[in-house]
Amino acid sequence: MCSRAMLMIALLLIASIARAQGNGIAVPPSVAVGGKTQGEWSRLWWQWAASFEPDDSPVADRTGKFCHLKQSGPVWFLAGTYGAHRTIRTCMVPKDTYLFFPLVNYVVGPTGQIRAEECDVCCAQNEAAARSMTDGPSDLVLDLDGQRVEQLETYRQVSPACFDLGALANPRTRVFPSASNGYYVMLKPLSAGKHELNFGGRLPSLFQAVTYTLIVE
Could you tell me the pTM of the whole model? Predict the structure, then answer.
């Protein structure tokens, strides 16, 4: 009886882990990709998102026509959205490419000029503010072709250290110290063809919902 009970517990644990990992859809949040932790990818996502002017921003884009901009390497970024209305986009994605995106996230940057001796204090304050703003998420959702990823609260990522949000902007604009926090997913490379991806979430201060039609070539 004891052995049978232990077997049942083990099976339930395996099933729980499989649900948390999206049955192979998503990379577990603690696993590095391309030599970087997913916390580091979250920092790079923010620098990418902040590098655009409003007219060509993938975040402001309502159709997906800008999704290919400033993308390279083994990981492509998918954009969240501004406002509370669902955004529907279509995006062409190269094969063998991971996709990294926020269900819902937040960044806190500096206010005014920061003296060098103030950086450590301001960094700690911004990290605490970003953490506070992303506590208590609800309605976190991710499904790919109708397959749901569960336990999305475990996909929280924190920027490893304060960073320059404007590092990739043109012209370069220094926005340091910035700190981010939120819930991100790294999708494994998709098979060739068309896929439908839905994701989003709600925080006390914001909400986002996005649908992508992904065409993998």
Answer: 0.88
